[in-house]
């Protein structure tokens, strides 16, 4: 697991641009690498602002991104 960096956007798109990987949460499907770059930028900002966030999961012994995991601050019904 590593903190996300701008260069991870292609790997994030490879995962979240594939309909099968978001079958149970289709709202996460990304249309293109630009969407992935914006998402990764939000993840990086969240880390900078809060000191925690999503991690990029990498294949053991490789830099290949295979997923992501983590937590983030968010509002639900306008409540933190």
């Amino acid at each position: 697991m590593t903190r996300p960096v701008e260069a991870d956007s292609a790997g994030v798109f490879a995962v979240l641009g594939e309909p099968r990987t978001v079958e149970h949460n289709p709202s996460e499907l990304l249309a293109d690498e630009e969407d992935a770059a914006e998402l990764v930028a939000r993840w990086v900002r969240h880390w900078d602002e809060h000191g925690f966030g999503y991690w990029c999961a990498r294949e053991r012994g490789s830099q290949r991104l295979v997923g992501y995991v983590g937590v983030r601050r968010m509002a639900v019904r306008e409540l933190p």
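The chain is about 30% helix and 15% strand. Strands lie at 54-58, 65-70.
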